[in-house]
Amino acid sequence: MKKIAFQGRRGAYSESAAYHLFGNDIEVVPMDTFAEIFQSIETGVVDGGAIPIENSTAGSIYDNYDLLYKWRLPIVAEVKLQISHSLCALPGVKLADLKKVLSHPQGLAQCSRFFGRNPGIESIAFYDTAGSAEEVAKRGDKALGAIASSYAAKFYGLDILEEGIENLPGVNFTRFYAIQKIAKDLPTQGKIKTTLLFMLSDSGKSGALYAALGCFAKRNLNLTRIESRPHPDRPWEYIFHLSFEGNPREPVVIDALKELQSYCDFVYRLGSFVEGTTEKLSY
Fold it and tell me: What is the pTM of this model?
């Protein structure tokens, strides 16, 4: 049985993603930080990990972009989960009793309109959504609530005061990647996405990024995502994370990557995988 790590506590959204990405026949391993997941995969403590990479309303999870550059672990699959947040508290507590609500910063950002409607409730950043539910149960403070999944609320014995408190109910999605130490064989069918890291050779030159992206545009290869992150050792220079639709076995993709290399210090393929489906939470 494979050991698959996720950040947070039991009931976290990433736990559900782990099952979608690796199947039900796994042992899930909760971890405190994303960095711990990458290190545990590299050292063989676990077989793989499920990490969130972006949310449709709150944006990118920058820590994981930076860790993908640092560790270069292969991305082997993706899934998009529909996220629904619940406000939970100790049994018997009412909304009017709450003074503070804990959740992961992404969870708080995705529920900012709730706090706008309830200015008397302070939002408190916590390391994990499910962990915030666990913390509320542990503290026993009736003025404290949490934003987490309904599963996490039930798992830790809390009441659900409101469901679906995210800013855009029904259209709040998080994309998760499956990462592991050894890459899988390239897919032979389905719509293939490829994810790259690259760094421009002369980022100060006018039109350098335009020229690099033109490698894909001129070949009608659809870019699905581009993200820039500061280089950890070279001030004002950037690492680009780019995803596009295309199989690296195809001649047109081979040509695009060959041309891209001429504009870059390095090009590194993090993974090629079948485009992820959109799923609902399950445990």
Answer: 0.91
